[in-house]
Amino acid sequence: MKKRNIVLIGPMGTGKSRAARILADGLDWQLADTDRIMEEYGLLKMSEQEFTGLDKEYLLRVRKESFGYSCLTDQRTYYLENYPMIVNEKGNIDEVIAMLVKGERV
Question: Sheet harboring 104-105: ordered strands across?
Fold first, then answer.
């Protein structure tokens, strides 16, 4: 059977997440809430020296930049708590996809 997806689009606060949970439960499908996923993903930006001392266990992708490195993680909170001196941005969906496509695996 061909896999199918349902995508709900609309303004914030209109009940998309609630409707998605109801649909997923009713159809016995897996729910992928992009809002929740995006909360966990982060873009880390740091110098080469900071990168050398970084715990790379939770890095998904790495890209060499003119200033040092950009890294994609799905454990943003871990790096916020353990490396407060590095830049830790909450990336948007376009930035996360770009890193997944163009970044190198760790």
Answer: 87-89, 42-46, 68-73, 59-65, 104-105
Q: What is the pTM of this model?
A: 0.72
Question: What is the secondary structure of 10-68 as a DSSP string?
Answer: --TTSSHHHHHHHHHHHHT-----HHHHHHH-EEEEE-HHHHHTS--TTEEEEEEETTE
pLDDT tens for residues 42-81?
Answer: 999 999 999 999 999 999 999 999 999 999 999 999 999 9
| Residues contacting residue 71 through CB under 8 Å, at least 6 positions apart | 43, 44, 45, 46, 51, 54, 59, 60, 61, 62, 63, 103, 106
